[in-house]
């Protein structure tokens, strides 16, 4: 049938994609393009934001004791609920504008500015 896979739909595992491309299943002159699963992209965004909240701390010394306080978490800041909302809108921005990288960027920035202003 001469069927060839043109796209590889990935979940973020670069080793698998590298292995497929490196094996050159269709010869030297055939390129397999990688497409990322939007669900996995959303999940990575959520994980990165949660990690950022955990890692961004401020140390203060009070009465001889060092106290570590998370500076991004708390009321009016980057809460778990807000991360969930941002992640959903991030995925929607990609899904609704997949025909243009610029449109995706614009939609993501619009979400950022909307939540930053409220």
Features:
118 residues, 53% helix, alpha+beta, 4 helices
How would you sum up this structure in a few lines?
This protein is α+β, with helices and mostly antiparallel strands. It has helices spanning 14-23, 38-55, 80-96, 101-117, and strands at residues 7-10, 33-36, 57-62, 65-70.
Please provide a written account of the structure.
This protein has helices at about 15-25, 40-55, 80-95, 100-115, and strands at about 5-10, 35, 55-60, 65-70. It is built from four helices and four strands; from the N terminus they run βαβαββαα. It has a two-stranded parallel sheet. A two-stranded antiparallel sheet has the order 3-4. Helix 2 runs antiparallel to helix 3 (about 80-95) and helix 3 (about 80-95) packs antiparallel against helix 4 (about 100-115). The protein has two domains: about 1-35, no CATH class; about 40-115, no CATH class.
List the helices and strands and how they pair.
Elements: E1 7-10, H1 14-23, E2 33-36, H2 38-55, E3 57-62, E4 65-70, H3 80-96, H4 101-117
Parallel strand pairs: 1-2
Antiparallel strand pairs: 3-4
Helix pairs in contact: 2-3, 3-4
């Amino acid at each position: 049938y001469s069927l060839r896979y043109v796209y590889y739909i990935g979940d973020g595992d670069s080793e698998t994609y590298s292995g497929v491309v490196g094996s050159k299943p269709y010869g030297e002159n055939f390129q397999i393009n990688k497409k990322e699963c939007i669900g996995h992209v959303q999940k990575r965004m959520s994980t990165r934001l949660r990690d950022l909240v955990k890692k961004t701390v401020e140390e203060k010394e009070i009465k001889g004791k060092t106290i570590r306080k998370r500076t991004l978490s708390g009321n009016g800041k980057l809460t778990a609920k807000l991360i969930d909302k941002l992640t959903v809108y991030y995925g929607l921005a990609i899904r609704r504008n997949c025909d243009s990288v610029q449109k995706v960027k614009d939609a993501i920035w619009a979400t950022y500015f909307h939540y930053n202003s409220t």
